[in-house]
Design a protein that fits this description.
The protein has five helices and five strands; from the N terminus they run αβαβαβαββα. The chain is of the alpha/beta class. It has a single domain, classed as Glutaredoxin, CATH 3.40.30.10. The protein starts with a helix and ends with a helix. Keywords: Cytoplasm, Disulfide bond, Electron transport, Redox-active center, Transport.
Length: 134
């Protein structure tokens, strides 16, 4: 009986979506996920601003900024917010010359437009508003 209940629960569980709900931070765990999110944001239909939080589990300032970044994602569902752990996804961090955490990168049309290095909430919010307006 327990097996049947577990199977029913598994069947009722929603399948993981390719694109998480707008207004959320999307964690990147593979180069395929990274490519998919960047390609989608750059598609001719959307051309969305992408904000990437380069973080690390051992980084204290990163833990302070995480809920702030999540709050910005909720307030700005028209922007793609990605989170990249530099230890897990070294290739991406190296591609963008990330040397300090947290580093926030602003991208549009596949190009880096700006960056904020450090746990600077006001600067992050200011740059977000600036690049959303463009």
């Amino acid at each position: 009986m327990a097996d049947t209940a577990a199977a029913a629960a598994a069947a009722a569980a929603p399948a993981p979506a390719l694109a998480p709900a707008e207004g959320s931070v999307i964690p990147i765990h593979s180069l395929d996920e990274w490519s998919m999110q960047i390609d989608e944001a750059n598609s001719t239909d959307t051309k969305k601003l992408v904000v990437i939080d380069f973080t690390a589990s051992w980084c204290g300032p990163c833990r302070i900024m995480a809920p702030i970044f999540e709050g910005l994602a909720k307030k700005n569902p028209n922007v793609v917010f990605l989170k990249v752990d530099v230890d897990e996804m070294k290739a991406i961090a190296e591609q963008f010359a990330v040397e300090a955490m947290p580093t926030f990168l602003f991208m549009k049309d596949g190009e880096v437009k700006d960056r904020v290095v450090g746990a600077m909430k006001e600067e992050l919010e200011k740059k977000l508003q600036l690049h959303m307006a463009q």
